[in-house]
Design a protein that fits this description.
Length: 65
């Protein structure tokens, strides 16, 4: 089971995500993509599926599936 933790703080917050995957599964670390006319997006990339489960924008918006 995957776990997401949200910890509110004064004027900020902390979000953690723990993926319940095999330790043998590859990861590519943190990737950043700049979209013209938009914020930069930061996310860990799963090379097996080509997707991600959590992302953060340069403006501080966070999305987690």
């Amino acid at each position: 089971m995957c776990t997401v933790t949200f910890i509110p703080s004064q004027g900020a917050h902390i979000i953690t995500s723990n993926r319940d995957e095999s330790p043998l599964r590859q990861s590519q670390g943190l990737i950043s993509r700049h979209l013209p006319g938009h914020n930069t997006i930061y996310f860990p990339l799963d090379p097996d599926s080509g997707g991600s489960w959590i992302a953060l924008s340069g403006s501080g918006r966070t999305v987690c599936l």
